[in-house]
Amino acid sequence: MVTQDHSPTFDFDRFLSLSGAGLWEYMPAITESRVPESVVQRIIEHLDSFDEEHLAFALEISYVYEGEAFIPHIPQFLAHPSQSVRLTASRKLRHLEQVSQEVYDLVKRFAPLFPENRVGDDILELVSRKVP
Questions:
Q1: Segments of the chain with pLDDT less than 70
Q2: Residue 2's beta-bridge partner residues?
């Protein structure tokens, strides 16, 4: 879907209906659009029900979403069975300029469960320096 200014817009129902190559082709609408707060809330509500592929893409949406609603939901995915989900979550946490004590506590809880232990330790150390 494209708006009048030709910027892609994110369609949650279309996102859910896609898989495989179709989801990859939809990536520009995910990464190049402003995702409305209402859509972000729907995504957050569905995080636990997404398959690995949709979850990784949902975490990518957190990169373009400018609000903080997503941030407390990211640390739990450091312990996800899927490496692509774990790495997407860790990449997002690395790019945050600042984190709340609540988010740090969640990272502290989930980072040790990161199967690649050194990576989990690195994320924990990095995030600890971002708490005001």
A1: 1-8, 29-31, 33, 66-67
A2: 8
Domain ranges for the chain: 1-70, 74-132
Q: How far apart are CA 74 and CA 90, in angstroms?
A: 8
pLDDT tens-digit series, residues 57-89:
888 887 777 668 889 999 999 999 999 999 999
| Beta carbons of 75 and 106 less than 8 angstroms apart | yes
Q: What pLDDT is stored for residue 3 in this prediction? A: 41
Its pTM stands at 0.82
Q: What is the 3-state secondary structure (H, E, C) of the chain?
A: CECCCCCECCCHHHHHHCCHHHHHHCHHHHHCCCCCHHHHHHHHHHHHHCCHHHHHHHHHHHHHCCCCCCHHHCHHHHHCCCHHHHHHHHHHHHHCCCCCHHHHHHHHHHHHHCCCHHHHHHHHHHHHCCCC
Give the distance from CA 38 to its chain's centroid. Answer: 16
